[in-house]
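Standup notes, protein team

Yesterday: finished cleaning the Microvirga aerilata set.
Today: ABC transporter ATP-binding protein structure.
Blockers: none.

Input for ABC transporter ATP-binding protein:
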Amino acid sequence: MSDLFRVEGLTKNFGGLAVSREISLAMPAGERLALIGPNGAGKTTFVNLVTGQLQPSAGRVVLNGEDVTGLGAVERVRKGLVRTFQVTRLFSDMTPEEHVTLTVLQRERKATRILSRFRGNAEVAGEVEGLLGTLGLLEVARRKVGEIAYGQQRLLEIAIALALRPKVLLLDEPAAGVPSSDTPRIEQALERLPPELAVLMIEHDMDLVFRFAKRVVVLAAGEIIFKGVPSEVAANSRVREAYLGNYANARSVA
Ligand SMILES: Nc1ncnc2c1ncn2[C@@H]1O[C@H](COP(=O)(O)OP(=O)(O)OP(=O)(O)O)[C@@H](O)[C@H]1O
């Protein structure tokens, strides 16, 4: 019962198609969990069910012992369930500093129309600087988002999510679309996430998954087919068959 977060029997049907089938898993504070699986396995649907973008056909989402299944996405964010998206949703004419400042003000329910008034607010500015620093974005804090590297844009999404003070953070493919030369930057930023935060990451980059995750959950056809530590996952025959075969063979993982 010490789990910070858990889902029980989470099920979603689209018409006759079962996209999530009785998914149950729990995360303690400080968790670093990777959710992997082939395209169409239902990973994004799962995140949508957790964060309230979708309502389940059956099952529960429980945060800090509270059943939040009936709550909408905004209420869940306020309770600490926060996500990033597979594709960036930023304003190209605004700077990282402005994005994060607006998010902090929104969280505090301050009027965001008067952003300029808060620029000089030391408390807000200090928090924003800390968040941008955690994600390695201080050097581009005042550049327009449209002018910074795509990898930095993905990191800014995480900074924005952190500005909402999550307890559970769901990262939907943080390295998707990022050139491989930039993935170390993403990896370093992920290492600096607050230790008490529970993080669930969907990712196809297996090197990143195996370096980041303490535990791995494998989804195939809407169902969990494996839960375990990274060293076990590559050796599991069901997982190799469903997903990892090519990766494991390429790396000679026994
Ligand atoms: N709104 C919807 N209506 C009907 N089917 C849907 C809907 N959303 C998703 N699906 C189907 O559910 C299945 C799971 O999709 P989902 O996007 O969750 O998979 P995924 O594991 O995130 O895939 P990817 O790795 O490609 O992002 C797919 O077959 C998809 O076509």
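Follow-up from PR in the comments: DSSP finds ten helices and ten strands in the chain.
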